Amino acid sequence: MNPGEVVDIYTDGACRGNPGPGGWAALLLKGSAERELSGAVGETTNNRMELQAVIEALQALKRAVRARIYTDSQYVRLGITEWLSGWKARGWKTSDRKPVKNQDLWMQLDTLVVGHELEWHWVKGHSGVPGNERVDALANAAIDALLGVK
Questions:
Q1: Residue 8's beta-bridge partner residues?
Q2: Are 35 and 41 in contact (CB under 8 A)?
Q3: pLDDT tens string for the chain (150 positions)?
Q4: What span, in angstroms and rounded, lies between the C-alpha atoms of 139 and 119?
Q5: Active-site residue among 13, 22, 23, 39?
Q6: Are 128 and 85 in contact (CB under 8 A)?
Q7: Active-site annotation holder among 17, 115, 117, 126
Q8: From 146's CA, which of 18, 91, 98, 131 has a CA 20 to 30 Å away?
Q9: Is 126 a known active-site residue?
Q10: Exactly one of 22, 50, 56, 131 is catalytic; which is it?
Q11: For residue 34, what is the enclosing H or E element?
Q12: Any catalytic annotation for residue 13?
């Protein structure tokens, strides 16, 4: 990858009920190339789907990259940029000594970010940002496919 090249990554999760059937999606953009990823789970939460979307996007990368990750989840953005180091220092406990929710996914994400140069950006959901709208539609389409909705 050329030093000036940056991958733009849009991620989103969706859930019908919380918990309920959920979907995740990611869109990876580099120059004119793009790749869509999506999937669904029968019983999950919205936060798990938000995390799964980022995990799947990072797993799809074939080498270390510079990337801008756009998410409408403050849980994901704040978790990775502010809370994660404290959770690890406290043995995967929150500041009030409770177990970190979704620890399995946070641990996976923690290993996947190594080696990449990542910028984390929050975008307001359903506000017309094309990449965010696209991954929202893909995540919901994945739920529809899981449920057999046409």
A1: 29, 68
A2: no
A3: 455 689 999 999 999 998 999 999 999 999 999 999 999 999 999 999 999 999 999 999 999 999 999 999 999 999 999 999 999 999 999 999 999 999 999 999 999 999 999 999 999 999 999 999 999 999 999 999 999 998
A4: 23
A5: 13
A6: no
A7: 126
A8: 131
A9: yes
A10: 50
A11: strand 33-44
A12: yes
